[in-house]
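Hi P.,

Sorry for the delay on this. The queue was packed all week, but I finally got your sequence through. Input first:
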Amino acid sequence: MTSSLNPSQNNGIKEDVVVVMVPFLLQGHLNPLLHISRLISSYNLPIHYICYTDKIKQVKNRVHGWDPLTTSNIHFHEFPNPPSRGQYSSDKSEFESQKIVIPLLEESLMLREPVGAFLLEVSKNTRRVVVIYDSLMASVVQDVVSLPNAEAYCFNVVPAFMISSMYLEDELIRLHLPSFIGKFVVRFLLPRGFEFPNNLPSYKSSFIPEFMDFIIMQHVQNNFCSGNLYNTCKEIEGPYLDVLARFDRLLGRGTKQWAIDPLLPIVTINNDDDQNNMIHRHECLKWLDKQEPNSVLLVSFGTTTSLSTEQIKELAIGLEKSQQKFIWIVSDVLLKEGEQVQIPKGYEERVQGRGFVVKDWAPQLEILGHSATGGFLTHCGWNSILESVTMGIPLATWPMVFDQPRNAVLITNVLKIGIEVKDWERRDELITSTTIETTIRKLMASPEGNEVRKNMVELGKKVRQSNSVGGNSKKAMDSFIAHITRS
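Then the structure:
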């Protein structure tokens, strides 16, 4: 539902605790905050999810695994879309293609006034307003400090591995401590015997300056945070969460920390399931029903990916030559020339029965939860990684931009739940069909792939258990709810 313009109109009844969600404008940020809304709403707390009209429409249309419109205490409040600022061309490289996010950075800053007004109205008839904001929206919600009955909690979409490594490399530590002691102090913070992998991809190679400057600005302004929520869990990133907690103590912030993943509903679809709803299921799920367990590779690159026409062709040929079954979602891939993705002529006919090409939106979570799915070729977006881990599906890594290059290192070098397709050092090279074919075969049908699969299955089981009664994530969420509803 969409909330009324005046959120305080509740017939004069003063609510106890109201939670307001303030997401960043990229799909990979909109979605997890909606999933948190689902979890918190299960504790019978009212949720207001606020954003621009087009972004709310986008997140509603792309959510999978559950229906937010059937959850009575999740309310959507839409702000009018900002004036069109045009789009930046993505005609050079994967690095330069990041410029398509620059309008979103500008549009997010425009939300400070309407968000502030909304929070003021909510606060008038509420004992406590709890604001959960994306880490990239700190400047937007900074006026929360003017409300005596409001407190704000930062939600970190990217992994703890990414954030803690930023401190390690002086990207954030220099904002708090003199540079000549910063790195020494951070090294001291590391648990005994703990080391980050060597030669991590540099931030300068994976973030355009405009985006990195924006991230630093949000970090500098984030001085009113009452605690951090992390889109991860101890089973995946325990040591890195410890590093972040130590850093908070070093700075005397005493900030509380809750690692609450998995946020997703656990979806497992077997071949004989859901026969009564076949008419409403996506065609690719019906196709999966006919395949053997663990036999299909999902190929999907998220919503901000840019590939050349030549790279699309090599990918198509590599999938075909691998002789492995696959589902390839091409709807979200952007061509560097800004054109629509064109797969090779006659390709779908050649791979018919073995390959399924999806040209519109596809239910990724349900695909990963299907018993026929046995691997995922991914751009290494953190949400996609978490979906795979939750479902126990091993990965083939092809990082593109942002946090993805370091996420790929976490997957292949640290957790050992994936196999590398594209080394970040070769980011400007064309990945040949032979490389793609070899990696797919290795993941889906080799001793090395079997070992990676075993690691992922074991980790997935631990992550799912963490959300059960007595599990780390369940206890963290219970702790957070007890904190924000305290007397």
